[in-house]
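User: Here's a chain of 188 residues. Predict its fold as tokens.
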Amino acid sequence: MIKRVWVFLVGLATVSVVGAAQTYLKLDDDVDSCQLFEALNGPGKLPSHCPSAVSGEGGQFKSRMGPPSTIAAPDRAVLQDINFAFNSDQLSPDAKRQLNKVVSVMTDPVSTGERYNVEGNTDRTGSDAYNRRLSLRRAQAVKSYLVTQGVESWRLQALGNGYHNLLDPQHPEDGVNRRVDLINAKRK
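Assistant: Prediction complete.
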């Protein structure tokens, strides 16, 4: 099973449940590098300065953002609406600033050998074929930026989901669905 890593670039730093056993980390300026390492690589691949986030008691997740909870540790990071305008694959300066946090994790020696899928997603507006092409362009834009900042190209695979992986199926045309997901392809 491939674990999805979703980093939200907007909102407060919180751990939330998506679906049955999926959690994500919302990335904002308050999220520390340890939280991002954990979301991208799992609790077993943290730098020595990061404390483990999983307690030994009943598998509870000890969030760095609050008290222990019974939800799982985040296994995804979503680049939520990474400032993709409607019908656009252009990265904004703010999106690039947020992606620099991802670069710092992916280029750290702790992440050596980790491979990631970069999956573009769209809202439900438009045809399936058009949205698959647009989502692939978005994923390629993120991959290209990560590579220009030092992440090895062979570690990243750009894919386009179109509208087939809506974050908010209740509101399929909402901008929340226009995002890029980072999926650690090696974690099972």
